[in-house]
Amino acid sequence: MSAQMADLRVLVIDDEGFMRKLIAMQLRALGCKSVLCFESGEVALDALSNGGLDINLIVCDLQMPTVDGIEVIRRLGSLGFQGSVILASGECQRTVKMAEKLAHAHGLKLLGALQKPVQPDQLKWLLDKMGGHCTTEPRKPRAAHQVAASDLAHAIESGQLINHYQPKVCTRTGQVVGMEALVRWCHPEHGLIYPDAFIGVAEENDLINRLTEAVIAGPHGALQHVKQWTAAGLNLHVAVNISMDNLHDLSFPDQLARHAEEAGVGLGHLVLEITESRLNTDVLSLTDILTRLRLKRLRLSIDDFGTGYSSLAQLHDLPFDELKIDRRFVHKAHQDSALNSILEASVNMAHNMDMTTTGEGVETVEDWLHLQRKGCDLAQGYWIAKPMPPERVIHWVSEWRERIAELPGLEVSA
Helices 17-29 & 120-128, crossing angle to 10 degrees? Predict the structure, then answer.
């Protein structure tokens, strides 16, 4: 029995007496000394809101009379509950998945969901997550201060923006084919600031073109790193996320061509990633700019596919080369039939349109093998590598080549 299990203060909410007692018994068998049980979600919530309970884990059923599990989730979010939550249900998988999404949306620390009757080994596996064994992607740190447009402008001009790179790997051969550039602000006082803290500021204050130029063509930009890697014998493309605001400027293709020529790098090394949810309705100017980019041999990628509201007609009409499948449809798709169906349909549709497919969010070897089986061309995610500084890339590629020797199902080149 671990000390951590003994210190847990658990609340079980389930209207079924047998199931309530079974879960409590399993928890105690795993070492949890303090287990309280309630048959009513309403009574449990009242006790929590009145401060009468000191709880750090709640195991909750979904199907309950009067106050069901969804209302419990909503109320826990409103209370700002800081403990962990496990859902236990006999409902269908799609209903449980929706409940999981709601729990995350309400800011709850959801360990996972268990199918009834709950199995002790599955319960233990979820409890182990509280001990730091969780493999899901950690949240990115945010800026500890409000970003001012003047500070961001100074950061762009003074070279404080740097790129980190995350590899994109061929699932068929294991070959590293490219890197995605992920901009960071190396702040002299606040340390590393991630883009979700300042991209919106750049777009709202007419700084996004200068920021994108720094990411691509600045002294710490993607073109310079491509040049260095090419000199070291690595033939890699670099994907750069661009804002829709960049695509309002009809001169954008010519600016990119000029920067690439000055750096001595072919434009074919660049991939521009556009997030699906940001695709605008000004199709005429968008088509103009994207087609000119393609004529200059840049490759175009639609990012986070499946999360936005763009129509299939836009996907057909705009000249994309690559479709990146969002991580929520990749991670654990091997054990979720609905996710697997979306992944499979996305891969097949893209291939029928002569587009390369990239699966994001590969966090386990099972995710990798599933993409391989489904014919997804490229993979990207923490299981392969976390974003890294540019000086680390060459050494990492050598390490990866040794690692893939142990991976199953790869085609070995002669």
Answer: 60
Residue 277's pLDDT is 53
Element (H, E) at 13: strand 9-13
- Cα dihedral 192, 195, 196, 202 sign: positive
The single residue listed with the structure tokens 């919530």 is 45
Q: Which residues contact 300 (CB under 8 A, 6 or more apart)?
A: 271, 272, 274, 290, 293, 294, 318, 319, 320, 321, 322
| Tokens standing for residue 177 | 């084919």
Residue 143 and residue 198 in contact, taking contact as beta carbons nearer than 8 Å: yes
pLDDT tens profile 213-270: 999 999 889 999 999 999 999 999 999 999 888 888 888 999 999 999 999 999 999 9
State the pLDDT at residue 246.
Answer: 87
Over residues 356-368, the mean pLDDT reads 96
DSSP class per residue in 164-227: EEEEEEETTT--EEEEEEEEEEEETTTEEE-GGGTHHHHHHTT-HHHHHHHHHHSTTSHHHHHH
Q: Is 66 left (phi over 0), alpha (psi -120 to 50) or beta?
A: left
Query: What are the chain's domains?
Result: 3-133 (3.40.50.2300), 149-406 (3.20.20.450)
9 is written with which tokens? 């203060």
Tell me if the bond preceding 117 is cis, omega within 30° of 0: yes
What 8-state DSSP symbol labels residue 134?
Answer: -
Contact of 196 with 238, CB cutoff 8 Å:
no
Q: Residue 264 has what pLDDT?
A: 95
